[in-house]
């Protein structure tokens, strides 16, 4: 450190400019008369005695008489303690600033636009950790790995988890995407002949269904139809990178339909727990209808549990009963998923519970008795 920076550091620690100049000069001379110290430090002769007394009061120097007033530097322990205390204070302040900046509170904000992609992933993780019904995620293998523990924990709680895994770009992601709180992206590069073979074994016990989208895409997480976290492709230049955080059911619906139509419905299923038999759980009434419509039309008895909201009272309800009727779009139910054209048609289930019949709709229903959030096919009994 040069002399000028040393003086500045001493001044920042609380000494005056004249005291800093005199102390630095005293360190270089060891011992000096007051007049010699004034000359060496450019402190005015009229001020040097006050400066020397101040340094002595701080414990930085001591004075004694030997014909004239002599000044010498004390052991620097006191000065070092003062500087270290000053440094600790600033380090603590820096850490506090970093902590407060890196944990933005978006709980009460309807929509927030952020400049850091890692903020989007971090907020997505927090929402996934508190998910109750449904999580829909579009992510690269690296992004999935960074959220995997939160996603698996949600699945363990009974949350329906849909994952669209997208192709990883060959380029190294920008340094701004690497969040030390969430860990570095992991896993080997994917084999183009066996997409995501390195993470495929991680699906079991973690997600309900996985689809593969063979192109680069945006990161998106939609949670419980209330929250959405979005970030554009990592290959965009830094000047074009941003994130959007939504904490509103109406706005989240825009991202929900983007996920359904662009990122989910038309892509190949590579893993599904629903192939393992009953019970089979769905968070989308159209996917449930795709499963049960052929069965009901063939005369089978289908027992369904619906968790949702009473459209009149707004209270949560859970109903279990047999399907007595349904309305669905007409299409080939042998295909893997409902076609996009079916999304504009009515989707309603009539559920007989004890002596009552309830009409069940999907997200945003207001004409039916219940807005369904979770549909579980419990039992299928074929007609004799």
TrEMBL record:
Chain ranges of the Transcription regulator TrmB C-terminal domain: 111-170, 200-379
Pfam name, any one: TrmB
Domain Transcription regulator TrmB N-terminal: 10-77
Domain of life of the native organism: Archaea
Entries under InterPro entries matching the protein: ArsR-like_HTH (IPR011991), TrmB-like (IPR051797), Tscrpt_reg_TrmB_C (IPR021586), Tscrpt_reg_TrmB_N (IPR002831), WH-like_DNA-bd_sf (IPR036388), WH_DNA-bd_sf (IPR036390)
Signal peptide boundaries: none
Region entry Disordered, spans: 171-195
Gene3D superfamilies noted in UniProt: Winged helix-like DNA-binding domain superfamily/Winged helix DNA-binding domain (1.10.10.10)
Family of this protein: Belongs to the transcriptional regulator TrmB family.
Record's protein name: TrmB family transcriptional regulator
Organism of this sequence: Halapricum salinum
């Amino acid at each position: 450190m040069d002399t000028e920076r040393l003086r500045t550091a001493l001044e920042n620690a609380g000494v005056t400019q004249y005291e800093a100049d005199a102390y630095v000069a005293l360190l270089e001379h060891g011992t000096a008369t007051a007049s010699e110290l004034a000359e060496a430090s450019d402190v005015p002769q009229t001020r040097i005695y006050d400066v020397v007394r101040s340094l002595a009061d701080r414990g930085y120097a001591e004075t004694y008489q030997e014909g004239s007033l002599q000044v010498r530097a004390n052991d620097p322990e006191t000065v070092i303690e003062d500087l270290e205390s000053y440094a600790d204070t600033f380090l603590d302040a820096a850490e506090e600033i970093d902590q407060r900046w890196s944990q933005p509170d978006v709980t009460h904000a309807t929509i927030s636009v952020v400049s850091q992609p890692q903020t989007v992933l971090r907020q997505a993780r927090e929402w996934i950790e508190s998910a109750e019904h449904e999580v829909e995620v579009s992510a690269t293998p690296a992004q999935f790995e960074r959220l995997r523990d939160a996603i698996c924990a949600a699945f363990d709680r009974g949350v329906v988890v849909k994952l669209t895994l997208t192709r990883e770009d060959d380029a190294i992601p920008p340094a701004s995407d690497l969040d030390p709180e969430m860990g570095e992206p992991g896993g080997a590069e994917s084999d183009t002949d066996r997409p995501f073979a390195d993470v495929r074994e991680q699906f079991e016990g973690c997600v309900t269904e996985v689809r593969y989208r063979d192109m680069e895409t945006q990161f998106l997480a939609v949670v419980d139809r209330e929250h959405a976290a979005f970030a554009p492709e990592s290959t965009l230049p830094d000047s074009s990178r941003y994130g959007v955080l939504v904490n509103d059911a109406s706005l989240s619906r825009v991202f929900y339909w983007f996920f359904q139509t662009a990122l989910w419905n038309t892509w190949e299923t590579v893993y599904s727990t629903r192939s393992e038999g009953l019970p089979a759980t769905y968070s989308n009434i159209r996917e449930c209808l795709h499963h049960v419509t052929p069965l009901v039309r063939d005369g089978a008895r289908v027992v369904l549990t619906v968790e949702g909201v009473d459209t009149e009272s707004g209270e949560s309800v859970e109903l279990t009963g047999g399907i007595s009727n349904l309305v669905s779009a007409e299409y080939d139910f042998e295909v893997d998923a409902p076609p996009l054209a079916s999304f504009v048609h009515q989707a309603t289930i009539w559920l007989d519970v004890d002596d009552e019949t309830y009409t069940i709709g999907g997200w945003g229903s207001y004409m039916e008795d219940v807005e369904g959030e979770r549909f579980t096919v419990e039992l299928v009994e074929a007609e004799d």
